[in-house]
Amino acid sequence: MAIIAINTNQIIMNKGYTRILFTLALALAVLHPELLVTFAQAQEGQSVSFLSKMVSNLGLFLYPFMLLLLAGVTLMIYNGIAIRKKAFTNDEVVQPIIQELQNLNIDGAIVLCEQYKLPVTSVMKAGLSRIQDDELDIESIEKGIDESSGIELAKPFNWINLLNTIGSIAPMVGLLGTVAGMIGAFDVLATEGAGGDASKDMAGNIGAALWTTAAGLIVAIPTLISYFIYKTRFGTIAAEVNRVAGDMVFTLVRAARGGFDEAEEGEYVQDEGMDMGVPAPGAPPMPPS
Fold first, then answer.
1. Residues in CB range of 117: below 8 A, 6 or more apart
2. What b/e sequence results for 185-223 when a residue is b if at least 16 CB atoms lie within 10 Å of its CB, and e otherwise?
C-alpha cells in the first residue's frame, strides 16, 4: 500500500510533464504518420509508407499543406507550454498583495503587482490604479479590472484561436485539391474517352483528388482537437483570474469599512466578556444576586 501511495504522488507531481509529453506525441504522430499506418504494394512486394504515397500524389498542394502542418505543430507545442495556470496566476504572488490590501496599503500592493509580471497582477494593478486621493470608487475599480482583463486575456487566446483557423483552412485546401483532381479526371474523360491509357489518367486524377482530402483531414483533426483542449483549459484559467480580481475588490471594501479590525476586536471583547461575566449585547439583564 505504501508503494502504491508513493507511485500515486509521483504521478500527480509529474502531471505537468505528462501534458508536455502528450503534446510532443501528438506532434510526432502528425509529422510521421508512416509510423502508424502502411499500405502494401502488390507489384514489387514491398511496403510503401502512407506519407510517401501522399507526398507523391499531392503535387503543388504539398507546399501549403506542409506550411499548415508546420504552423499547427508549432502552435500546439507553444500553447501546451504557455497555457498553464502558473503562467497566469499564482497564490504565492496573490496572497502578499491581498495582505497589503487588508492593511489598506495601496501603494505597497501596486509595487508588488509591478514586481511580479503576471496577467492577474496586471489586472489587479489596473483596478488599484483607479484609486485616487484615497477615494474608493468601486465602480471605477471594477471598470479598470474589466478593461485590463479583456486585454490581458485576449493576447494568449489569439494563439489558441489560430489553431481553429488552421483546422478550418486545411480541409478547404483539401477540398480545392479534390475539385481540381475531379476537373482533371472529367477533362480526360471528355477528350480521350474511357478506354486504354485514358482510364489510367482519369484514375490518377481521382486518386490525387482523394489524397488532398486526406491531407487536409490529417492536418485539421489533431489541430482542432488541440484547439478545444486548450480552449477549455484557458476558460478555467480565465475564471480563476476573475475570481482573484473579485476577491481583491471584496478585500478593499471590507478593509475600508474596518471589517478586519472589527473582527479582531470583536473576538477580543467576546473573550474578555466571558471571563468577567458581562452579558452579550442584546441579552436579557442578569437577575440580581
1. none
2. beebeeeeeeeeeeeebbeebbebbebbbbbbebbbebb
Q: What is the pTM of this model?
A: 0.68
Q: How many distinct structural domains can be found in the chain? A: 1
User: pLDDT by residue (tens digit) across 227-277?
Assistant: 999 999 999 999 999 999 999 999 988 888 876 555 444 443 344 443 434
Residue 199 is assigned to a structural domain of this protein: yes
Phi, psi of 277 (to 5 degrees): 75, 25
Residues 6+ apart with CB under 8 A from 175: 213, 216
List Cβ neighbours of 91 (8 Å cut-off, separation of 6 or more).
none
Paired residues of 41 in beta bridges: 46
* CA–CA gap between residue 37 and residue 96 (Å, rounded): 54
Q: Is residue 204 part of a domain?
A: yes
**Which residue in 73, 75, 61 sits closest to 31, CA to CA?**
73
Residue 212 CA, chain-centre distance (Å), reads 30
Contacts of 216 (CB under 8 A, 6+ apart): 65, 170, 171, 172, 173, 174, 175, 177
Are 196 and 8 within 8 A, CB to CB?
no
Q: Which grid coordinates are listed for 283? A: 441579552
The whole domain housing 122 covers: 58-270
